[in-house]
Every structure is written in structure tokens, then in C-alpha cells.
Amino acid sequence: MLNSASARAHTNIALAKYWGKRDEELIIPMNSSLSLTLDHFYTDTQVTFDDSLTADFFELDNRILPATKLTPFLDLVRQKAGIKTFAAVKSFNHVPNQAGLASSASAYAALAAAASKAAGLELTRPELSRLARRGSGSASRSIYGGFVEWQEGHDDLTSVAVPIEEETDWKIGMLAIILNAGVKKIASRAGMQHVVKTSPYYPAWVKESQADIDALKQAIANRDFTQLGEISESNALRMHALNLAARPPFSYFEASTIRAITMIEELRAQGVSCYYTMDAGPNVKVLCQEEDLPTIKAYLAPAFGTENLLFARPGQGVKFLEGD
Ligand code: DP6
């Protein structure tokens, strides 16, 4: 066989975070999460199942990388499709790699769509979400655009993302402050595993998470930006508090992270409505309304440089690209 398909998926940033697994193999999370898919950061992936290949092949941004990392995921697709053919995967990441901008979310969402189509499967979006989840939990949410909830579920069938508001007319977005675009020190997989095992705050985290999701949904329905921001910021800080309370402790914060957070707080004290969130890396993402963007950028630019301030609006779900 020689079958090819391409797909584009956007990254998403969680407003209520996923941080811990109940099942490591199936990637079933300890709690549901809620995210916003962004338009500016995405991954394009082409998958070709080709009988002439003697092993899987992986190229990222024109660099050949070991395909062994992707093989378990491709095996899942092959198993579903009943084929044994190896695949060539070519990806272009329009996301600063592993800098806490959740590149694994767009990567596995695009891979799930392209690989399943190239293998001859016609998966529904819930099926795509479940497949993407097996690559990386947060990827389950990138199948959909706008606000998305990944419902924790209890098994492979029920742990799936659902759209809350796919095409939102709310003029909000995220301003990513790129403080360090290097590879993160502790991969999210290892970080969350360590926290589940050792952080005494973990049960409290799980207990609070559903209340955060309910409040975020209410904020979205009522277009209540203050509530959206306050809950998101508090949820992110609680996730990072888990890390500080782990044994041994760890943190994704860098000195510049604290500086950025302090400046957001200063802006807020001046009456500008903006809130921050952070993931498994030092970069800070500012949740804001479009009307406040010029003020926020002008305040942050002298400290971090205009080129390190990347704004993204709500983005779309996964889509297939023409040409294959
Ligand atoms: C902090 O989805 O990268 O961004 O499932 O192990 O691949 P794996 O983890 P991943 O973790 C994302 C963690 C987070 C929060 C979030 O996106 O919900």
C-alpha cells in the first residue's frame, strides 16, 4: 500500500489543568480539564503508509529523528486498521518546541488525524479525540476548536474531549510571553507522575478541580471575563503548588517567570483586566480581552521584547489538508 494523508491541529492551553493520570497506559486522567484551542500555534503532519519502508520514519521540521517514540502510537493505528505497513511521518511544528506551549497537544492531534486517515480509517471526532489521547492527554482536546472539556471518564471509551463552544465570538485570547524557548527540564509526564505519588496536596487538587470546571463553564456562558481569569489563574497556581509540595520538590518557575507574573499583577492593579497561566515550563500566558492587548503589550515589551510576545485568538479544531 501507499496511502498518504495530512492534517493540521492547533495547540490548546488549559484553563483548568490536567496534572496526573489514573491509568498510565490508556492515559486516563485523575480529573477533567478545560482548555482554549489557539489559532496561532499549530502542527502540520503528513503520514504515508508505504509498503517499501522497512521501519517507521520520522522527520520534524526537516530534521530526521528516531521514530521509536512514535512507533507505539502508530502500532495502535495499524492495529485498528488491520495493517502492518510502516509509516513515514513528516511534521512541521509552528509551536516553540517543548517550551510549555503544549506542542505535544497539536502534534498528537495532527498525527491521530493524518495517520488514521492514511491507514484507511474514517474516525469520528470523539474517536479521534480518544486516539489522540493515547499519544498525549492534552492532545485529546485539540481535536476541537474554542473552549473544550476533556471529561475524565473511567475507561478508554469514556475519557474523551467534548466541545463547549467551538466557534466563539468572544474577543479574548492568550498572549504568550516566551521567556525560555528551550527544552523543559522535567517533562510533564514525569512531573505529574511524581506529584501523584508524593504531593500531600494531591487529593485536594482532585477534589477542587470539578468546581473550577463548573465555574469556568458558567463564566463562558455568561461572558464573565473576571471569573474566567480568576479561576484560571488560581487553578494554574494550585497545579504549581503541587510541584512545590512534592518530595523532592520541583518547579517550572524561572526568575523571569516571577518577573512576568509581577508585571501582570501590576497591570491589574492599574485596572487592566488580565490573568496568567503557566504549564510545564517557565513561559507565562496572559489571558486577556483583545481591547486590552495594546496596553498589555506596551507594558511588557520593554522587559521581554516585542518578538517574545505572541498573541493567539481562539482557534479551530483539527482539519485535513488537501494535496494527498
Ligand atoms: C501542564 O498532555 O503533555 O499542559 O499525557 O503525559 O503527554 P501526557 O501529558 P501532557 O500534559 C499537559 C499538562 C499541562 C496541563 C494541561 O494541558 O492540561
TrEMBL record:
A Pfam short name: MVD-like_N
Organism superkingdom: Bacteria
Key words, A-Z: ATP-binding, Lipid biosynthesis, Lipid metabolism, Lyase, Nucleotide-binding
Annotated Gene Ontology cellular component terms: cytosol
Annotated InterPro entries: GHMP_kinase_C_sf (IPR036554), Mev_decarb (IPR005935), Mev_diP_decarb (IPR029765), MVD-like_N (IPR053859), Mvd1_C (IPR041431), Ribosomal_Su5_D2-typ_SF (IPR020568), Ribsml_uS5_D2-typ_fold_subgr (IPR014721)
UniProt entry tagged with the keyword Nucleotide-binding: yes
Broad enzyme group: lyase
GO MF, one example: ATP binding
GO biological process, one term: isopentenyl diphosphate biosynthetic process, mevalonate pathway
Domain Diphosphomevalonate decarboxylase-like N-terminal: 9-161
All copies of domain Mvd1 C-terminal, residue ranges: 175-306
Entry's transmembrane regions: none
EC numbers, comma separated: 4.1.1.33
Family stated for the protein in its record: Belongs to the diphosphomevalonate decarboxylase family.
NCBIfam families membership: mevDPdecarb
Record's protein name: diphosphomevalonate decarboxylase
Organism in which the protein naturally occurs: Ligilactobacillus equi DPC 6820
Lineage: Bacteria, Bacillati, Bacillota, Bacilli, Lactobacillales
